[in-house]
Amino acid sequence: MTEERRPWMADLTHHPGGGAQRVPGWSLFCASLAAVAVGGPLLAMSGLGLLATLALLLISSPLLLIAGPLLIGAALFLVGCMAAFDGAMVAELAGLYTFTWMFRSASRGRDYGGHVMDEVKERGKDWGNNLQQKVHENNPLEDEVNI
Q1: Block means of pLDDT (10 residues each) for the chain, length 147 residues?
Q2: 7, 35, 36: which is closest to 21 by C-alpha?
Q3: N or C: which end of the chain has fewer CB within 10 A?
Q4: Rounded Cα distance, 134 and 140, in Å
Q5: CA Rg, the chain, in Å?
Q6: 3-class secondary structure for the chain?
Q7: Can you give the pTM of this predicted structure?
Q8: Neighbours of 120 (CB within 10 A)
């Protein structure tokens, strides 16, 4: 009675339909050899890149330590310049929008701002009268001081 050898997991391929099939040893060896042939140089190049990066960091660290305050000042200056440029762009867009609104208003012959100003004046007068009335009603010293 001979026992059948149980296959290794690496010797099996699994298919979506289910089940596993035995992979020949030669195919497995060729696939492993191809993986080493492709992955080996890639791993070596990434290691060399890491080594070069660490060497340059080691060489440049004294310069970074000496020039650090200058670099921080320059970075803050650039951030301030960018913020000022952003503010100028916002002001430009607001001016362009206002100019477009005025041009449309003038080209149609309509006065969009006139009736708004009249309404604001009327509301201001009403608010002022209302405030003055409340002050007169709630002032206990009104008899002593003439306002």
Answers
A1: 56 60 80 91 95 94 87 93 97 94 75 68 88 81 58
A2: 7
A3: N
A4: 12
A5: 41
A6: CCCCCCCCHHHEEECCCCCEEECCHHHHHHHHHHHHHHHHHHHHHHHHHHHHHHHHHHHHHHHHHHHHHHHHHHHHHHHHHHHHHHHHHHHHHHHHHHHHHHHHHHHHCCCCCHHHHHHHHHHHHHHHHHHHHHHHHHCCCCCCCCC
A7: 0.34
A8: 10
